[in-house]
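Issue: ligand-bound run for molybdenum atom - logging full I/O for the record.

Environment: standard queue, default settings, no custom constraints.

Inputs:
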Amino acid sequence: MAAAHRPDPERYAPPHIEAARTGSDLRRGLSRRGFLASAAAAGGAYFLGRLAPASAQTPTLSDADIVVPDDPTSILGMSLSQRGLRSPFVHAQRLINDPDAPLGVAGWTFSPLQDLEGIVTPSDLHFERHHAGVAMIDPTEHRLVVHGMVDQAKQYTLWDLERMPQESHIYFVECSGNSLAGYPGGAADDTAQSIHGLVSTSEWVGVPMREIIEDVGLDPSSTWALFEGADAAVMTRSVPVEKLIDDAFIALYQNGEPIRPAQGYPMRLVLPGWEGNMQIKWLRRIEFGDAPFQTKEETRHYTDRLPDGRARQFTYAMEAKSVITRPSPGRGLAGAGQWTISGIAWSGRGRIERVEVSTDDGNTWEDATLLGENLPRSTVRFHYPWEWDGEEAVLMSRATDETGYVQPTREALLDVRGEGYTYHYNGIQTWRLHSDGTLSNGYVDA
Ligand SMILES: Nc1nc2c(c(=O)[nH]1)N[C@H]1C(S)=C(S)[C@@H](COP(=O)(O)O)O[C@H]1N2
Ligand SMILES: [Mo]
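Outputs:
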């Protein structure tokens, strides 16, 4: 399992900073026709490379240096379009990791954390985890059946759900296999994306499970419900009714549009803060019962072996975690000087209370600034201004959530977890910053 999650460095070399190119070099070659030709030559990929600043210093200008910028009127802009593209200067794409599935139907793709800012993941860069490919579902054919320990079984179309009261929330989804390169086996060229890219954040709009429960009339002795997907894997997981009444909902929209096929179009279960695997996509059936259904995904998989040989089942909430995304491997520093250390933190148990950053291998820590809205069970962005002296340094971030829980060091986590753990890694990530400005994974076991 661990090996399957880990990207193959031969096949998925982390992106490196390309030789610094100035904006005007690129613009010269970027008439509309030139752009289209180069986009076509790149096989439809519409990026030209990663821009890195040439130096860490912002140049000062004397009066003599100040020149009127080029006249832009001779190059007509791109034409209007029905759907937008990213700037050709922006390089951001998911990393595909499915060494065991040549057709790419049963693998993972990782979000490009090092290329993102703020908290919302652009929908086409949301990480993916599919056990049998992306189901392509015609919503006019799709039905959600709700039955079992209810007064009245019902069958909902997408439009039936659209008519019901809805809620909007920003939540992260994180695979419980995220960050497992933190367990022994990590490689020096692992990146923020390849280690931690199985977390993404969206604005989800949908129907609270409370509304469905009210609509079908729940037998008061029902305590669990089975959720089933319409994909070829027919993914099934049991969820306690308590969570359904509390804050679970069926998402229909993601970041302002119908949820993407990869995220479960036309409907998926959202369980705020809980492990991604339970958040069944392409949802087609809910069965209420009075015990967990003990499906394959909660017995054979998604359990963790404890040091005493027993298995821990139903982990639910993802514990507090943080990672520095910039700088990070593949997203280095051009030289000594003033930089902003940027990263994300999140907790399945509520709000992030505080993020601290260390630039001296964990000897001293200082508070980072939390940007924008700090929402429960969402990622929050942190920034920390830092003057780099150009010497080797070890960078870390440490999150504390509103329950007072502090993200553990890797050492402390491994001590408790023992050898058998596969999932739910949330230890502190260490990036080694080298004097040439490149970075590497600080946790590599001999
Ligand atoms: N029906 C169905 N639901 C599913 C899965 C699946 O393969 N089929 N994968 C699960 C896993 S393991 C995770 S981590 C999340 C991933 O959600 P995402 O692909 O939208 O990021 O969906 C979960 N729900
Ligand atoms: Mo997952």
